[in-house]
Amino acid sequence: MNFQLTEEHLAVQAAAREFAQTELLPGVIERDEHQKFPAEQIKKMGELGFMGMMVDPKYNGGGMDTISYVLAMEEISKVDASASVVMSVNNSLVCWGIEKYGSEEQKQKYLTKLATGEIIGAFCLSEPEAGSDATSQRTTAEDKGDYYLLNGTKNWITNGSTASVYIVIAQTDVAKGHRGINALIVERGMEGFEIGPKENKLGIRGSDTHSLMFTDVKVPKENRIGEDGFGFKFAMSTLAGGRIGIASQALGIASGAYELAVKYSKERKAFGVEIAKHQAIQFKLADMATNIEAARLLCLQAAHDKDTHSDYGKSGAMAKLFASKVAMETTVEAVQVHGGYGFVKEYHVERLMRDAKITQIYEGTSEIQKIVISRELLK
Ligand code: CAA
Ligand code: FAD
User: Fold this and answer.
1) How many whole angstroms from 247 Cα to the centroid of ligand 1?
2) Directed axis angle between helix 231-267 and helix 66-79, to 10°?
3) What are the angstrom distances between the C-alpha of 69 and each of 50, 245, 249?
4) What are the C-alpha distances in Å from 51 to residues 66, 84, 309, 326, 337?
5) CA–centroid distance, residue 105 to ligand 1 (Å)
6) Domain Acyl-CoA oxidase/dehydrogenase middle spans what residues (predicted)?
7) Overall average pLDDT of the 220-234 stretch
8) DSSP label at 130?
């Protein structure tokens, strides 16, 4: 496998790095502390093409490959994982899902605006009683002829209060089990659609996470994505690609923490020398760098599989499983390298450590990734 990056890949990576350093770094600590959504920054990310990177230019997208997306996600996540989850949901769950499976009308109406970041989207699968066990949908979409009557509650929805377009998974025919589930495009402001309070989170505190309540919301039939009963497969297929985005987010959190640890170890002196001269610190950095390189290769492998139309369910799950573990381990060690300074906000590593944890939970927990991987291995 040759992961020689092209000129275009390197340009995307450099643009994302520059944007992260100049636009995201200032204020990232404050946004985390006050749970402030990076609205201005997301708008600029849209203008720079980061919100619909892989979308066909005919729908206003960047027409880029998944490798470019991984590289950009890593750079943005090094600095601000709250901004990168907004980017990831919009790119790989909402834009990709509509472009791959939506009707031409849906693409014209929604995708053309989602791809530029003019509006952002949310992906609503999880419910209070259906997280990992995603087929146990309690939200119902009753078929009423020319519309669906939507009732139920979704929880933990990223971009919950900032999105304009919500892809909502709901059960139409219980007797058919997962084959009776549909994916519907719900617009913010539809009558009967309410947004619950913002969750007060451990990490990615700049992103907004909400419960959503639907009471007799009338969703026109033309807002269903794909054929009747395709909703669960839609969700699974979309999440397979989404996991590459979250794997790259985890990779970025790890590499951001590692870079800070290297820098600090050359500045801080203890026992008359820079702490980087102590072998215990050197070995930590060696372990971090090795794990990060392995995580990066898994992310690129999964992206390459997707770009070459090979099966990427297993490689994406492997990338997410491994990169999220590396993010957790690396950030804990980066705090350790910083000593007491690592425990306070100014040095960034404590935030990266808090942000890392979610990558082992959302878009399928690490246990769920192992289920996906082992089913592929044994089939
Ligand atoms: N593509 C298309 N179809 C797929 C698929 C895929 N990648 N994976 C499974 N399916 C299909 C199966 O073929 C099956 O259909 P048939 O019976 O017709 O063959 C159907 O889906 C059901 O599959 P399973 O029998 O494997 O279902 P299961 O109940 O055993 O569950 C699971 C499988 C992998 C555990 C799944 O429930 C799952 O992924 N759970 C985790 C949910 C999750 O990731 N949630 C994330 C929410 S979004 C989010 O978190 C966003 C964010 O934070 C930012
Ligand atoms: P549970 O499914 O109850 O799991 C609890 C524990 O049991 C976990 O450790 C799990 O791995 C384990 N477990 C469960 N089943 C098994 C099994 N069969 N074998 C082994 N172990 C198992 N969802 C959306 O739809 N859209 C979003 O935008 C979104 N954003 C999120 C943002 C945040 C900040 C958070 C916290 C969550 C978000 N989620 C979103 C929800 C997320 O996808 C779920 O939290 C996740 O899928 C786990 O579901 P759960 O929380 O119900 O945990």
Assistant:
1) 18
2) 50
3) 8, 8, 11
4) 13, 10, 22, 26, 35
5) 27
6) 122-217
7) 98
8) B
Residues marked active site are found at: 363
Look at ligand 1, atom 3, and give the residue with the nearest C-alpha: 233
How sure is the predictor about 3, in pLDDT bands with cuts at 50, 70 and 90? confident
From ligand 2's centre to the CA of 131, what distance in Å? 4
Ligand 1 site residues (CB inside 6 A) read 85, 89, 123, 125-126, 132, 134-135, 158, 178, 232-233, 236-237, 239-240, 313, 362-364, 368, 371-372
Q: What DSSP string runs through 222-242?
A: GGB-SSTT-HHHHHHHHHHHH
pLDDT of 250 > 80? The answer is: yes
In angstroms, rounded to a whole number, what is the distance separating the alpha carbons of residues 158 and 143?
A: 27
**Bridge partners for 270 per DSSP:** 273
Residue 366 alpha carbon, nearest atom of ligand 2? 11
Q: What is the pLDDT of residue 369?
A: 98
Would you say the pTM of this structure is higher than 0.95? yes
Judged by DSSP in three states, 203 sits in coil
**pLDDT for the residue 4:** 87
Segment 275-290 shows an average pLDDT of 98
